[in-house]
Every structure is written in C-alpha cells, then in structure tokens.
Write a structure and sequence with these properties.
The chain is an alpha/beta fold and 216 residues long. The chain has 8 helices and 5 strands; from the N terminus they run βαβααβααβααβα. Bound molecules: thymidine-5'-diphosphate. Thymidine-5'-diphosphate (TYD) binds next to helix 4.
C-alpha cells in the first residue's frame, strides 16, 4: 500500500483556503485519488472541542488564553488530529488535505504572539512526532482584498484570533512569507488574488510534481 500524500493549505484570514481545499479535493477524486479534507484547529471530536475553547473563548474569562496556553492548546488539538485522523488516513493510502496545520502555529503564536519558533517546533515534536506535510500551499492575498472578503464573510463578527489588531495579522503574514522562503522545498507560494477557479489552476500546477511522483 502506497502511503497517501499530506497537503496543507496555509495563509492569513480570508485567503480562500476552505474553498481551495474543497476544489482540490474534487480534482483529486476525479483522478481516482482517495482524499479526506480536514481542518485545524479541529478535525476530530476532541480537537473540535479544543477549537471552541480557543475561538469562542470561555464564559467568565474575558482576558482569554495567554500566548503559552494558547500554543499548548493548538498543539494538543493537533496531536489528537494527527494520531486519530491524519496518520491513519496516510497509512491507509488516503491523501489528506488540511485547512491550516503547524505553520499556522508558527505564524500566529510565533510571529503574532511572540513565542519562539524553536519552542513551537518542540511542542510539535512532543505532540505529533514532528509530522510535516509533503507540500504546504501558502495562499497569499493582498490586504485590501482580504478586508473586502472578510466584510462579506464575517457579518456576525470575527472569532477571538481573527479579531486581533492589524499589527498582529501583519506579523502573521510576514512570518508565513519567511517560513516559505526558508523552506522552499516544502512550500509552494500561491497567488490568492483572482477568482477561485484561477487560484485552483495555480494550485494544480504547484501539485504537478507530487502527482507525477505518485503516478510513477
Ligand atoms: P478559522 O475560522 O478556521 O479561520 P480561517 O477561515 O481564517 O482559516 O479559524 C482558525 C483561527 O485559528 C484563525 O484565526 C487562525 C488561528 N490558528 C492559530 O492561531 N494557530 C493555529 O495553529 C491554527 C491551526 C489556527
């Protein structure tokens, strides 16, 4: 049994990752590839419960999680997700498309929240035995376009992390860019401006090497 491939989609708020995860899943299934689409934080019942602690907050706790507790909760959610869904799927030959993964922790809790990259990688080693995607698609969108998309999407208000100040989100985007530059073999940078089908076409061309390697 050939191991499945692991593809993560990363980027800031309103980058269109969820739509692209769905389009990519459909394109791979049309080629006869078994695919599971999942997301972080979440993807398993335990990780979804942690998601709600992180994004909805806790009644009576207005201050919210500190940066360290937040990073540990994301790592705990990821540990459950990897052990119960991602690894078993890959080992069974299914491809996994994940809407956000480790690099979101490095960009948000690291770049945004000020934790060191080494600490976040340690948490990932302890929680998930360091499992990395085969390919990480970083979807990058101009900030004016993001403001427009979020105004359409988040009419009921943004979540606890999405609603942080612009300077936080600017540090997140800069960190994503730096991570992609540092590890050009694992990352593909995708221009996320334009309509969903155009962006999907860019993603499919970034996937060509993986698809060719899997066919041979
Ligand atoms: P979600 O509604 O899934 O956001 P989006 O549609 O923008 O992807 O919410 C996930 C939020 O959690 C988002 O603000 C990014 C944040 N996050 C982290 O801060 N660290 C992480 O490790 C992950 C996976 C997400």
């Amino acid at each position: 049994m050939t191991r499945g491939r692991f593809i993560a989609l990363e980027g800031g708020e309103g980058a269109g990752k969820s739509t692209q995860a769905r389009l990519l899943g459909e394109a791979l299934r049309a080629r006869g590839v078994a695919v599971v689409i999942t997301r972080e934080p979440g993807g398993t019942p335990g990780a979804e419960a942690i998601r709600s602690l992180l994004l909805d907050g806790v009644a009576g706790d207005e201050a919210g999680w500190g940066a360290r507790a937040e990073a540990l909760l994301f790592a705990a959610a990821r540990a459950d997700h990897v052990a119960r869904l991602i690894r078993p799927a890959l080992e069974g030959g299914t491809w996994v498309i994940c809407d956000r993964y480790l690099d979101s922790s490095r960009a948000y809790q690291g770049g945004g929240g000020g934790l060191s990259d080494a600490d976040l990688l340690d948490l990932h080693r302890i929680g998930s035995e360091g499992l990395l995607p085969d390919l990480t698609l970083l979807v990058e969108v101009e900030s004016v376009e993001v403001v427009r998309r979020l105004a359409l999407r988040d009419t009921a208000g943004s979540d606890r992390i999405g609603g942080r100040e612009q300077a936080y989100h600017d540090r997140v985007s800069a960190t994503f860019r730096r991570l992609a530059e540092q590890d050009a073999d694992r990352f593909a940078r995708i221009d996320g401006n334009g309509d969903p089908q155009e962006i999907h076409a860019r993603i499919m061309s970034a996937l060509t090497p993986l698809l060719e390697a899997s066919a041979s």
